Amino acid sequence: MKDLITRANNFMARGVISQRSLAEQTGIAQGTLSRALNGHVRLTPAQQDLLAAALVELGAHCYEVLEEMLLARGYVEFPAQSDSIAFKKNWAVHVPGEPCRDNQRKDMIQVVVTIFQLARAYDRHSRPSVSVDVTGTDDLGLWFKLECYTLREEQIGSLDDVVKRLVRSWNLLHQPVTP
Asked: Is the pLDDT reported for residue 143 higher than 70?
């Protein structure tokens, strides 16, 4: 319940939806929704399901916008392989950085953005998430995977910063280690 309220408040704080529109979309009386969002009343399980459905729809829109942004920035979608994940899309791009030893692009490192949703029977209100990783072999042939393993809807705007931080960390792996 707390997670639903936090998500709803985050969407409203970012101007994605107004409280009035959310009340109309869910069919929950605006006064009841307002009190629930402020922590004064608890929504019934049926109201929680209505709110969750509305938030899933809003979240899906955020991920559609993310996919458009990835395409505009040169990312390419490639097939996902996973049995434990209900929904998964992978997007990759090469960016300047210390190259992976096994990569044919000698002045670039690959960044992978994965949009996924875990299939968890116990979680009525599961939602998509995003991970970002840089995976490769260093000069010694050691495999590394540097990963930001979850970005939620409200954090997608920090994707460029996450990529820069991962590439900077990857580049540090190629500096000599001093005793």
From this structure: yes
Q: CA 150, 154, 53, 49 torsion: positive or negative? A: positive
Which residues neighbour 142 within 8 Å (Cβ) at sequence distance 6 or greater? none
Whole-number Å distance between alpha carbons of 133 and 77: 15
**Residue with the two structure tokens 């996450």:** 162
Domains of the chain (ranges; CATH) run 2-61 (1.10.260), 73-172 (no CATH)
Residues 169, 146: Cα–Cα separation, whole Å: 8
Report the distance separating Cα 17 and Cα 3, nearest Å. Answer: 17
> Phi then psi for 74, rounded to 5 degrees?
90, 5
pTM for the full model?
A: 0.66
Residue whose pair of structure tokens reads 């319940």 in the numeric block: 1
Rounded Cα gap, residues 17 and 9, in angstroms = 10
Q: Which tokens go with 59?
A: 């979240």
Q: Which two tokens stand for residue 96?
A: 């300047």
Residue 123 has pLDDT above 90, yes or no: no
- CB 44 within 8 Å of CB 33: no
Q: Which two tokens stand for residue 79?
A: 């097939």
Amino acid identity of 70?
A: L
